[in-house]
Amino acid sequence: MLPVILTCPHNGEFVPVGVPIRKKSKSPSKCQSNFRITGDLHTTALTNEIADNIYGLCKKNVYVEIGLIKRNRCDLNRSPECAYEKLPAQLCYYRYHNSILTKIKEIQNQNYFNHKLGMLIDIHGFASTKKLPADFIVGTENGETLKAASQLNIDIKWHPTNGFLTSLKNEGYNTDPGQPGQDENPKYTGGPTVENAAKQVNFIALQFETASRIRSNESKRKALAKYVASSILKILDLVKT
After folding, report:
1. Which of 173, 182, 209, 238 is most solvent-facing, going by the fewest CB within 10 Å?
2. Which CATH number does the domain housing residue 44 bear?
3. How many domains does the chain have?
4. Amino acid 128: pLDDT
5. What domain range is 203 assigned to?
6. 128-130-136 Cα angle (round to 5)
7. Rounded to an integer, what distance in angstroms lies between the CA atom of residue 32 and that of residue 11?
8. What is residue 34's three-state secondary structure?
9. In the prediction, which pLDDT does 116 show?
10. Which residues of the chain fall below pLDDT 70?
11. Contacts for 176 with CB less than 8 Å, ≥ 6 apart
12. Burial level of 220, CB count in 10 A (0-12/13-18/19+)?
């Protein structure tokens, strides 16, 4: 196993018995500005394709956590008070996050590289529009969820050859942010999943939002999965040194 976790919270189809569709009007006021019930179509496929490509490149697996519950019943990438209304949904929420934490602890208990860094990538999707022309958007709370790496002078995003965004830009993708020093899109800087992961010792995390025009096109999605897998391995090469 590699010290990498791929998570996917918003493409589940499971509907627990007795759990109605969440309503914005019933959500606490602090949750309403970020209230969503639509899922991120094809992100489960993208997540599994990235994992499969990593195995194909190095014959090692990564950890994968796929959210099963439908987003309109429970939003797995929100704080608990904003995520669900009914008990069965609460059980799904904590099962998902406790499973991620278990995977983090397992990675922390291993001695993978000299720096012992682990990494979580949370996979999402956004609707392609003229205002959002990027192929994908990366969120790290403007570097806050990469502190464990930055403290070791490892530039996960923009290293000249092995940075995650550098690698994907070199493959011709339109990235957001588009250059070093540019602030991240304020709507997609990251959520509780990456924030919680980055609070763990020696862990880094980033949120990866893919445009709908790529996710819905199988050939484009699979091509992106191949390059993302390669970019993740390049990050691990940085960590090894």
Report:
1. 182
2. 3.40.630.40
3. 1
4. 87
5. 4-240
6. 40
7. 21
8. helix
9. 82
10. 241
11. 132, 134, 136, 137, 138, 184, 185, 188
12. middle
